[in-house]
Amino acid sequence: MKIKKICKQCGKEFEVYPHRKDEAKICSKKCLKRENRTCKICGKEYIIIPSSKRQTCGDRKCTNKLISRRIKRSILISCDYCGSKVEKSPSHVKNNKWSFCNHNCYGKWIKEKKKKAGTRSECKQCGKKIYKYPFQIRRKINFYCSKKCFIKYVKKNVIPIEIKKAMKNLNVNYEFVKKYNFMPILELQILKKKLKEEIRHAKNN
């Protein structure tokens, strides 16, 4: 059953569903608040929503003229990465500390900035030098140069200890495990467990 309401803009009576009785204030989109503005190029008046930032009547010629005016007002500055000259608007220069000629220069600049903030360390398995970004230092991750080194390290240093613990808990000896070929299964389970722990640790921190 619909409820009757009066439009606040035009005064007409309109119907709405009960769940919209508090929200509905106007009868249609035509009654949305609008204001008259004057085009900055041709001087023609046009109606528009107050929240809109449009400054022209909507004609393409007027829009193109306004853009060309903005370009003429632009300031010539140098790119903070490569040093080449680039045109930027006065508002951009005022609101931004750094300016770049394109996305490639910006990406390279970000990479270099991150590298300066990070540190170099050695891979736990092979001793190869690896670079650690600040977030990796903070999360205490990336101690290996590759997945192969991680697996080798776990198989050599972690799995034997974990297998001994598992055999103690299960009350079985090494001969029993070897006889029934349980070693590869145990190794795989421990490796999976360690990988999950590394991923969980990285996400939580």
Q: Can you give a write-up of this model?
A:
Helix 5 (147-170) crosses helix 7. It is flat and about 85 Å long. The strands form 4 sheets. The chain has a two-stranded antiparallel ribbon with strand order 1-2. Strand 7 (119-122) and strand 8 (129-132) form a beta hairpin. The chain is of the alpha+beta class and 205 residues long. The two termini are 54 Å apart. The longest helix has 24 residues, at 147-170. The chain folds into 4 domains: 1-32, no CATH class; 34-73, no CATH class; 79-116, no CATH class; 119-204, no CATH class. The protein has 7 helices and 8 strands, in the order E-E-E-E-H-E-E-H-H-E-E-H-H-H-H. Helices cover 45% and strands 16% of the residues.
Rg, alpha carbons: 34 Å
Order of helices and strands: EEEEHEEHHEEHHHH
What is the count of structural domains? 4
Large-scale geometry: flat
Percent strand equals 15-25%
Strand order of the largest sheet: 1-2
Largest sheet data: 2 strands, antiparallel
Helix share bin: 40-55%
**Averaging pLDDT over every residue, what do you get?**
76
- Please tally the helical runs, counting DSSP H or I stretches of 4 or more residues: 7
Structural class: alpha+beta
- For the secondary structure, the number of strands is 8
Gap between N and C termini: 54 Å
Which residues form runs of ≥5 with pLDDT under 50? none
